[in-house]
């Protein structure tokens, strides 16, 4: 989590944290806190705190010069005023640690000490910056309510009562408004930082999702392609194993199919590995099969010894969208592979029909197997992939046993 926060720090301040307030540095760099849990002052904070201390002292010195103009003020009260003012100026260094306590304490102190006026205004400013508005409203409202009493007890010698009250009230309101502005700017910066962090997290999640979808697409292609080729190898290798008395022509044909299927499988595997290796494949790969390649697929399966009937009633085969034709081809390829594995030697019928606006439908049905067929490991995974492929293409896929005991795979794809 810390690394995420550091990564979302504004670039202009990444290496200059000292120019940021301690509140922002604490949120962006939690590890920078002190052992007692309080944030460390940055270089900017020390400069600001020292400047505030000098301002409080300067305002106190100006107020101390006006004490001599009060004829009814005893000398002891004048000294006490200055001592309380000095303590109030020293308390300015505690304004970050206890903003509410300092502001509350400055309300009665400013009533009895004119030299603590600067420290009282700075305490209101700090309260507005570091605490919610409700604290500022209550404490600032109390200070404004007590101002008439202060100027009634200690009137300004050069200004009338109303003018003194208006000037002091406007100064306090301006200080509080400045503090609220600083607080809103800090909250805006934090919200922008959080928004940037969320945007980075969402971008990372989208990239991970895109990678996962790409891997799933490659896995589907690998299963659809290699399963078909390897099944041909298995069928013909098994025929050679269980028919040692086959004629030379049958052995040569089987060996040719095995060689061709091995070559195609290696070529497909090489292309898939080239996709997985980022930037290492120079060629664009072979074009993906579409519905036009369905005849070649059926002819290849017939050469492998399957009994297949193909019925095509497509109005405009050349007008079938490439994505729809590719999905239909993969469904037919997987269904023929399953029929060869689970019902060897049976007759398979492939039916494809469709027209623009009506959709494209494809059905692959095989007769019930003769005899007992041993179970094949991993059965059903290809049908799951086909269902997902058809769903992504906007269509549907259904599969299941027929009433005669065979098996049928049906899909319907949109053709707008």
Automatic annotation (TrEMBL):
Chain residue ranges for the region called Disordered: 395-416
Record's keyword terms, sorted: ATP-binding, Coiled coil, Kinase, Membrane, Nucleotide-binding, Phosphoprotein, Transferase, Transmembrane, Transmembrane helix, Two-component regulatory system
Catalytic activity: ATP + protein L-histidine = ADP + protein N-phospho-L-histidine
Keyword NAD: no
Residues covered by the Signal transduction histidine kinase subgroup 3 dimerisation and phosphoacceptor domain: 215-279
First-level EC class: transferase
Pfam families: HisKA_3 (PF07730)
GO molecular function ontology, one term from the record: kinase activity
EC number per UniProt: 2.7.13.3
Alphabetical list of CDD domains matching this protein: HATPase_UhpB-NarQ-NarX-like (cd16917)
Compositional bias per record (Basic and acidic residues), positions renumbered to this chain: 407-416
Protein's recorded name: histidine kinase
